[in-house]
Amino acid sequence: MYDRIYNFSAGPSMLPLPVLERARDELLNYGGSGMSVMEMSHRSKFFDDIIVDAEKLMREVMGIPDNYKVLFLQGGASLQFASVPMNLMKTGRADYAVTGQFSGKAYKEGQKYGDAHLAATTKDINFTRIPRQSELDIRPDADYFHICFNNTIFGTKWDYIPDTKGVPLVADMSSCILSEPVDVSKFALIYAGAQKNVAPAGLTIVIVREDMLRDELPATVPTVCSYKTMAEAGSMYNTPPCYPIYICKLVLEWIKDLGGLEEMKKINERKAAKLYACLDSSRMFNNPVSPESRSIMNVTFRAESDEINAKFVKESAAAGLQNLKGHRSVGGMRASIYNAMPEAGVDKLIKFIEDFEKANS
Ligand SMILES: *Cc1c(COP(=O)(O)O)cnc(C)c1O
């Protein structure tokens, strides 16, 4: 009906069709306001209801305990690479696991603010697995331990929540937030750029335990980067990203109607399992990730030959399966199969892989 493609982009990425349809229906006149959400004051009653609902739904869907704040910020996950050390480094020591490109960037940013220590990395094996608990060298007096929970580029995911022995745990969940239930109480802070699984680009979600909020920040910390200021202002110290917050609310309603994160997880695991099964039985394509570390959101695969990889990307795009080219640091292909990717899209990709393999071997 709409000529829509299956978009396997790592981000910005697909949004659920019912969400887009609802946004379309409400685009010109939101709830009888006579205007679009894009046009209204963030201080209006209409928008206030939207942001209050978005937070309420986020708490309900994720099971966020009462002693956590939910912040709707700007600047992307990349600004959080700096905001986390600016807010959380008290002694100036922080530990990082580097399991891919984004966690490497977070670690590097942390070094600007203090003594950032590499607690673990799997760089020597091209990030094809997540470090085990026994490999984590977390300093007991570190202000926090930072991990990237799902590695978007390398297609790996932490299959366990590390035991930090009391050191606050901070996680970048940009590419897996809302994909399955997580025990929020195990984390001191979770952040996520919204453009992978929650909303259009422009919104960054921060979920932070109240005891991490500090009054005394260095004088040079930008006010909009202070979690405490933002928490006290209900994310409205300045203009928040209003439209992405509205879409976030619609996406949360969609997840809730679907049966919540338990159901979301079932669907995501089913989608990922059949795609990995197809790759594991393929003689042309291979996924290099250790089975226990495989992501259910980003699935990488490649053939030996660069020529075959290029041909696959080109022909799959022509068949309506788009943006399957892998990140340039990994090569090959990557299928990002976030919440909004319909199971039919994964089925079509699997059929395409099988047919392509037959036609080219
Ligand atoms: C996309 C992504 C980022 C970067 O997000 P921006 O919002 O572009 O800054 C950081 N971390 C992870 C895990 C990502 O997937």
Q: How do the helices and strands line up, and which of them pair or pack?
A:
Blueprint: E1 6-7, H1 17-25, H2 45-62, E2 68-73, H3 76-88, E3 93-98, H4 101-113, E4 115-121, E5 145-148, E6 150-151, E7 156-157, E8 169-172, E9 189-193, E10 204-209, H5 227-232, H6 242-258, H7 260-280, E11 285-286, E12 298-303, H8 306-318, E13 321-322, E14 333-336, H9 343-360
Parallel strand pairs: 1-13, 3-4, 3-5, 5-8, 8-9
Antiparallel strand pairs: 2-10, 6-7, 9-10, 11-12, 12-14
Pyridoxal-5'-phosphate binds next to α3.
Characteristic terms for this protein:
Aspartate Aminotransferase, domain 2, binds pyridoxal-5'-phosphate, three-stranded antiparallel sheet, 361 residues, 35% helix, globular, Aspartate Aminotransferase, domain 1, alpha/beta
Explain what this protein looks like in three dimensions:
- By secondary structure, the protein is an alpha/beta fold.
- The protein has two domains: 18-256, Type I PLP-dependent aspartate aminotransferase-like (Major domain) (Aspartate Aminotransferase, domain 2, 3-Layer(aba) Sandwich); 259-360, Alpha-Beta Complex (Aspartate Aminotransferase, domain 1), CATH 3.90.1150.
- Helix content is 35%, strand content 16%.
- It has nine helices and 14 strands.
- The chain has helices at residues 17-25, 45-62, 76-88, 101-113, 227-232, 242-258, 260-280, 306-318, 343-360; strands at 6-7, 68-73, 93-98, 115-121, 145-148, 150-151, 156-157, 169-172, 189-193, 204-209, 285-286, 298-303, 321-322, 333-336.
- It has a seven-stranded mixed beta sheet with strand order 2-10-9-8-5-3-4, sandwiched between helices. The chain has a three-stranded antiparallel beta sheet with strand order 11-12-14.
- Helix 3 (76-88) packs parallel to helix 4 (101-113), helix 6 (242-258) crosses helix 7 and helix 7 (260-280) packs parallel to helix 9.
- Pyridoxal-5'-phosphate is lined by residues 11, 76-78, 102, 148, 152, 172, 174-175, 193, 196.
- Pyridoxal-5'-phosphate binds at residues 11, 76-78, 102, 148, 152, 172, 174-175, 193, 196.
